[in-house]
Write a structure and sequence with these properties.
By secondary structure, the protein is α/β, with parallel strands linked by helices. It has helices at about 15-25, 50-60, 65-70, 105-120, 165-170, 230-235, 240-250, 250-255, 300-320, 325-340, 340-355, 360-365, 370-380, and strands at about 5-10, 30-35, 50, 80-85, 90-95, 100-105, 125, 130-135, 140-145, 150-155, 175-185, 195-200, 210-215, 220-225, 260, 265-270, 285. The structure holds flavin-adenine dinucleotide (FAD).
Length: about 375
């Protein structure tokens, strides 16, 4: 594309938040641009797990999309979640038939979402287009990209953890992050045949954990995450810590002794909840990781990215319907997030505060009452 480009709404980022927003906006008589700096399929550093919540958000977007993900040839369903405490006791909770989930490479999940966007003729998809800068005016947003200038009446920024829009709207705040590394392995021994999701709470990582998530064909997504603050304070090199925790945890060392790492460890960050993030202006709304809505307890962000992408699009549609493009009006988006999502995010933040201490997890999972409670929380069953 060359020359000036004008859209009603530009959605920046074609990850889950951006795709959900673009689909929600479509078929409302608007000209929509969905822009991503990469060409798809693109790699996304992730645990590759789609929770029940993520799948139910996908279902809200489109029944056929939901079916496409469930039946994806590279998706597997995990029948069990296995949690190991710092004292290396193991607790398993059955998921099959209770908690729908899928694990599949994120590149393929996101490609499936983008394919759904392609079905809508009012969404112009611009891959390989990076937003380098923007300015927000009274009646438009001017976006400078690596190839041309784009003008939009409204922008939904789903541009991920290092969001340009988030840093501009929050220039006086210092956001918090969790840094993660993940790699792919083959041949880890002792994995359950029913594809257990494994969470290993280890003293060196608390309140974070080491995960082993099964993929198709004896392949596993393995990773760890800790707060950026701790990483800097203790001058930790995360890839070294990753090797150390495996080597120094006897049962894991045995299980990884014949495992083969396929490719390199890769790092990315998770925005950690902060109640103070500003997620709106007159003509810009933040969604997904850019809006800091990842669950800090589990590190799960796809469900909330889809949810906030959808909410942001509904708010944008309200702006066009009423002709009201004021900050005051867009505060409704912020209030909706606070009302519907923040109670859970806040509760999980409190739990994260508690499980910094190994004895809390050892005790909690050793207690029949708490494991019953956890089982109800995890599976949603009473
Ligand atoms: C190691 C790790 C493991 C995780 N595991 C899980 C998990 O198992 N399950 C789960 O639910 N969540 C997991 N998460 C969180 C999850 O990956 C994110 O919450 C989710 O990807 C957020 O979606 P998004 O659409 O907001 O952002 P992204 O998926 O990051 O998409 C943002 C898009 O914006 C594009 N973009 C960025 N800047 C620009 C720009 N300037 N111009 C144009 N395009 C731009 C990017 O190319 C990208 O495609 C994990 C995160 C990490 C780091």
């Amino acid at each position: 594309m060359s020359g000036p480009v004008v859209f009603d709404v530009v959605v920046v980022g074609a990850g889950p938040a951006g795709c959900a927003a673009a689909i929600c906006l479509s078929e409302n008589g608007l000209k929509i641009g969905l822009i991503d700096k990469y060409y798809f399929p693109r790699e996304k550093i992730c645990g590759d797990a789609l929770s029940k919540d993520a799948l139910s958000q996908i279902r809200k977007i489109s029944e056929s999309l939901h079916q496409a993900i469930l039946a994806h040839p590279n998706a597997i369903e995990s029948a069990k979640i296995r949690i190991q405490t710092p004292n290396r006791k193991s607790y398993s909770f059955h998921l099959q038939g209770i908690l729908e989930n899928r694990i599949m490479p994120r590149a393929e999940t996101d490609m499936t979402l983008l394919e759904e966007c392609r079905k809508h003729s009012d969404i112009s998809i611009m891959e390989g287009t990076q937003i380098l800068n923007y300015s927000e005016n009274e009646d438009s947003v001017i976006l400078e990209t690596n190839s041309q200038k784009i003008t939009a009446s409204f922008v939904i920024a789903g541009d991920g953890a290092n969001s340009l829009f988030m840093s501009r709207l929050n220039s006086e705040r210092i956001p918090k992050y969790i840094t993660c590394v993940r790699g792919y392995y083959k041949g880890i021994s002792g994995c359950d045949p029913d594809h257990s999701i494994e969470l290993h709470y280890l003293k060196a990582l608390l309140p974070g954990y080491l995960w082993i998530f099964p993929l198709k064909g004896d392949c596993y997504n393995v990773g760890i995450g800790i707060t950026e603050k701790r990483l800097k304070r203790k001058r930790i090199v995360l890839s070294k810590l990753f090797d150390q925790v495996i080597a120094q945890t006897p049962d894991l060392a045995v299980r990884f002794s014949n495992a083969e790492k396929t490719g390199q460890l890769k790092a990315w960050r998770i925005p950690a909840f902060t109640g103070k993030v500003k997620r709106y202006s007159r003509r810009v709304l933040l969604a997904g990781d850019a809006a800091f809505v990842v669950d800090v307890l589990s590190g799960e962000g796809v469900g909330n990215a889809l949810r906030t992408g959808w909410y942001a699009a509904e708010q944008a549609l309200q702006c066009f319907k009423t002709g009201n493009f004021t900050e005051e009006h867009n505060r409704a988006y912020e209030l909706r997030i606070r009302k519907e999502m923040q109670p859970e995010i806040r509760m999980h933040k409190r739990i994260v505060g508690l499980i910094r201490f190994p004895f809390v997890l050892n005790f909690a999972l050793g207690s029949a009452r708490i494991t019953r409670f956890l089982k109800r929380k995890i599976t949603g069953n009473s």
